[in-house]
Every structure is written in structure tokens, then in C-alpha cells.
Automatic annotation (TrEMBL):
NCBIfam families named among the record's database cross-references: PRK06127.1
One GO MF term: enoyl-CoA hydratase activity
Swiss-Prot/TrEMBL GO biological process terms: fatty acid beta-oxidation
Name of the protein: Enoyl-CoA hydratase
Residues spanning the membrane: none
Keywords per UniProt: Lyase
Catalytic class of the enzyme: lyase
Pfam family, one: ECH_1
Catalytic activity, EC: 4.2.1.17
Organism: Bradyrhizobium cajani
Length: 273
């Protein structure tokens, strides 16, 4: 993964989380390569702060999540903290609460998110990747949830996403064995959407992000909201939210701009309203 932003990144969690924004694309980097980007609680909290800042930055239209060092996206929770912070049910609940608040931010993120995965994507790293809207990986990546090797119960949200992506049988095989699969298998079972050679991964991910950032933000938001509702049980669906964003789109200046630009054979300039 290129170290292209090193002078313009904002650090969180003592630099173990980095944030960058330019040309409508926000990037959050998990930056603890010595530990294969294992997530400490401080990193979870820094991740939440970076997500919030990019969420509130009106110029940012899409957010990419990536790992530093070329060897891992995120290798899961930092196991070295478990003895202190996650040694029994009560401690684990407190731990889960602190990290769950940040995951909830990502789960309900109002902008499109892309996980750009190079190397190991394990345990809690899989959860982050699965919470992103889209997963793009390099050929040399490895995926797995080794909860059964550690004696950990993987939570409802993580498994809900796993089952919705790969189906219950693959979810069981992955969870019961704790096995790791490579990118080709991950692609085949629907865990990732696209796979590229390592040296093309970042360029291809940026190309998708740039395309998204140039499209109409409200139309993308409508797709995001509606797909999230499709995945809910019928009784829990908020059809009102779908209607509201649909109306916002159809009444928007961007829809007018989209129509005009098409007729005038030019590229549309969308404002998000
Ligand atoms: N938590 C804490 N430390 C971790 C870690 C994690 N999840 N993953 C890797 N590290 C540390 C290793 O302890 C090692 O530290 P050291 O240099 O002080 O010995 C360093 O990162 C490099 O890891 P290493 O195992 O030597 O590298 P590798 O490239 O051979 O293997 C992994 C990488 C990710 C496959 C392997 O480290 C691993 O299996 N990690 C645990 C993954 C896991 O169980 N995640 C789920 C947690 S819920």
C-alpha cells in the first residue's frame, strides 16, 4: 500500500490511526504494522474519532479503510490486552461496549465505505471489513475468524454480516474451524467483491472511490439506506426513511443537474442537495 499521504495525515490514538481527506475521498489507515494492525481499545476509539471527523466533513463523499505495512488490513483485536480487559464475561462486556460504539458508527455510516484489504484480515478485522459497504482485496490476502481457537464468542452483528455475505454454511465452516481462506476463495464465496494484484490494489480502490465521489451523493445515500432496510426483517424496516430519501432525491438540484448534463452531453457537477 503506498505511503502517499504521510505528510498530510491527521493522527489519532498516538498515530496508530491516521486520517486523510482530499478530492472528496477520505482515507483511514490502521497503522500498527508491528502488530499486524491489531486493534487496541485506544485504536478503536481513535478509529471512531476519525470516522466522526470524516462523516462531518462535507467535502468527503466516500471513505476508504486500509491497513499500513502491506502485511495486514487488521489482524483482529489486540490479544495482548485481553488479560487485563477481556478476561471474563464482565470485563468482556465493558470491552465490547467500548469497541461496539465505534463499530456502530461504521454500521450506520451515512457515506459509502470501502475496505481496501492487503494481507491478513482476521477476527475483529473481518468485522470492520464486513461493516464496510464494499471489500476490495489484493491477491495475497488471507481471511478468517479464529474465535474458536481463542475461546471467544463472536457477536451477533459480526455473524449477521458474515451470514448475509457468505450464507450460513460457509459461516459455520469458517467459525467452527477458525480456518483461513485466501482471496480467490473469499471472492468465490462473496466475502469480497474484487481482487487485484498487490501493485494494482490501491489504484483500483481509488478509481472506485473517485467514481463514487463524482456521482450524486443523495442517490448514493438512497441506495445505501434502501439496501440496509432490505437486509432488515420486514417488521423492523423503516419504509418511511426510504420514502424520505427518495423524495429528497427527486426534488434535488442534483437530479436537475443530472438531467441537464445528460441532455447537454457534459459531465454533471453534483452538490449533494
Ligand atoms: N494481537 C496482538 N498481537 C498481534 C496480533 C493480535 N491480534 N496479531 C499479530 N500480533 C503480533 C504478534 O504477536 C507479533 O508480535 P512480536 O513481534 O512481538 O512477536 C507481531 O504481531 C507479528 O506477528 P507474527 O505472528 O510474528 O507475524 P506473521 O506474519 O507470522 O503472522 C498473523 C501474522 C496475523 C497471522 C498472526 O500474528 C496471528 O495469527 N495473529 C493473531 C490473529 C488472531 O487470532 N486474531 C483474532 C483476535 S480476536
Amino acid at each position: 500500500m503506498p505511503d502517499i499521504f504521510s505528510t498530510t495525515e491527521t493522527p489519532y490514538a498516538e498515530g496508530k490511526i491516521l486520517k486523510h481527506a482530499a478530492d472528496g475521498v477520505g482515507v483511514i489507515t490502521f497503522n500498527n504494522p508491528d502488530k499486524r494492525n491489531a486493534m487496541s481499545l485506544e485504536m478503536w476509539e481513535g478509529f471512531g474519532e476519525a470516522l466522526t471527523s470524516l462523516r462531518d466533513d462535507e467535502a468527503v463523499r466516500v471513505v476508504i479503510l486500509r491497513g499500513a505495512g502491506g502485511k495486514a488490513f487488521v489482524s483482529g483485536a489486540d490479544i495482548s490486552q485481553f488479560e487485563k480487559t477481556r478476561h471474563n464475561a464482565a470485563a468482556s462486556e465493558e470491552y465490547a461496549k467500548r469497541s461496539a460504539a465505534q463499530r456502530a458508527l461504521l454500521a450506520d455510516y451515512p457515506k459509502p465505505t470501502i475496505a481496501c484489504i492487503q494481507g491478513f484480515c482476521l477476527g475483529g478485522g473481518m468485522q470492520v471489513a464486513m461493516l464496510a459497504d464494499i471489500r476490495i482485496a489484493s491477491h495475497d490476502s488471507q481471511f478468517g475468524i479464529p474465535a474458536a481457537r481463542l475461546g471467544i464468542a463472536y457477536g451477533f452483528d459480526g455473524l449477521r454480516h458474515l451470514v448475509s455475505l457468505v450464507g450460513p454454511s460457509w459461516a459455520r465452516l469458517l467459525m467452527y474451524t477458525g480456518m483461513r481462506i485466501d482471496s480467490a476463495e473469499a471472492l468465490r464465496i462473496g466475502l469480497v467483491e474484487r481482487v487485484f494484484p498487490e501493485d494494482q490494489l490501491w489504484g483500483e480502490t481509488m478509481a472506485i472511490a473517485e467514481t463514487i465521489s463524482q456521482n450524486a451523493p443523495l442517490a448514493i445515500k438512497a441506495a445505501k439506506i434502501t439496501i440496509a432496510q432490505v437486509l432488515k426483517d420486514e417488521s423492523a424496516r423503516d419504509m418511511g426513511a426510504i420514502k424520505a430519501i427518495g423524495n429528497a432525491c427527486m426534488d434535488s438540484a442534483d437530479f436537475r443537474e443530472g438531467r441537464q448534463a445528460f441532455m447537454e452531453k457534459r459531465r454533471p457537477q453534483f452538490q449533494g442537495r
